Amino acid sequence: QVSIFAQVWLKIAFWACIGHCWWVSVDMVVTTNATQVERGNSLSPLGVISAAAQALRGISQDGGAENQQAAVARGAKPPLTTLPSEPNGCDEEDQALQCLREVFKQANSQVVSDAFLRKCLVYQKGDVQAAAATIRGFLHFRQSAGWPLRISAHDALPALRTGLHWLLWPTSCPSQSVAFPAVLPVVHDEIDNRPASMLEEDPCPSPGPAACLVFNMSRLDLRTCSVEEYQKMSMFLLERATDETTAQHRGIAVVVDFRDVRFSQLTSSLTLADIRRGVSLWKGAFPCRLRRIWLLDIPQGMHYLVAGVLQLLSAKLRQRVCMATRKGGGLQRLASDLAPHVPLPACLGGSGEVLWDRAISSYLA
Fold it and tell me: Which of the two residues, 308 and 179, has the higher pLDDT score?
């Protein structure tokens, strides 16, 4: 028995040392990554892992694309005027909107629309302070990146045409008029400003996601668009998705399909700046709930990156991440999870086909 216990403890000690050395190696290459980016070089696989860790560690949990003091130190605009801890009379919908409207219209030359303020209040469940933090993060990122506050279809058109992303809607969504198997969202330029209360209960009783954003990673082609252009296209689709009240309340699912993608392809395409931008544009800077995250057919060697990034996420979000392979029956699991809420094409375990060219035409209409 002593011998068995000794073997167990030796194995635990061995793997603990391996894990410690791995994380030390990750930290050691951070400086090297920065040098590579300055020289215009792509990152190594280990560099991608460390870059993701560095980017996530550098973003505050409560509201912005970065720590505001650090942003000011780099010459960015100072933080916006803060709301009082208990704003007088801001407990009702109209008053809450008015509080936010006054703060952000006074502090910015670019006007934040009431529709976006409403999204942030819904996202933060009526908490004015938390909504203000999300808006600050959003404004900081858009201004620092030189992006408009609302991205147009024409701005994202080259990336949209690659088919890297699909935005799928359920057939029951009245304003999207989806006719499956032609998964075709009908999008209008006008934002939904219906007078329904922003603090009302979820209009749809289903707890599942209201829409699904698909990443077809095999269609990532840097000869057509830069990584930043693809990221801008992602935000264009998320802006359109969150125009819907159901998506504001129920959130969306994300499916990242790595079919026929090699890990070396991804690492050769990404720079530290791309990874930082990809994390900053999302975390604490945009009002959208992620209900599911499916990673399908992760390339060999990428599991270390995924495991490292998952450890940096909150426990709540980490539980929403699912990994699957087509060979291991992953499509059936994916379909059983999402198909009751959003119809899926055949390549993702459903039936039918995504007519994305028609969808693009509807965005441009």
Answer: 308
Q: Contact, 119 vs 245, CB < 8 A? A: no
| 22 within 8 A of 249, measured Cβ to Cβ | no
Residue 137 pLDDT grade (very low, low, confident, very high; cuts 50, 70, 90) = very high
Q: Give the integer Cα–Cα distance in Å for 340 and 330.
A: 16
Place of tokens 């190696």: 25
Euclidean distance between CA atoms 266 and 295, whole angstroms:
15
Q: How would you list the strands of the sheet with 211-216, edge to edge?
A: 165-168, 211-216, 252-257, 290-296, 321-324
Amino acid present at 145: A
At residue 310, the pLDDT reads 81
Residue 295 DSSP class: E
- 59, 279 Cβ separation under 8 angstroms: yes
Q: What is the pLDDT of residue 347?
A: 93
d(CA 348, CA 339): 10
Distance CA 136, CA 129 (A): 11
| Beta-bridge partner residues of 294 | 255, 322
Contacts with 263 (C-beta within 8 Å, 6 or more apart), sequence order: 45, 299, 300, 301, 302
Q: How confident is the model at residue 20 (pLDDT cuts 50, 70, 90)?
A: very low
Task: Give CA–CA dist 296/258, Å, rounded.
Answer: 6
- Alpha carbons within 13 angstroms on the beta-carbon side of residue 136 total 25
pTM, rounded to two decimals: 0.71
| Percentage of residues in the chain having pLDDT higher than 70 | 63
**Cα separation of 277 and 115, whole Å?**
25
Q: Is the pLDDT of residue 203 over 90?
A: no
End-to-end CA distance of the chain: 74
172 band by pLDDT with thresholds 50, 70 and 90: low
Helix (H) or strand (E) holding 324: strand 321-324
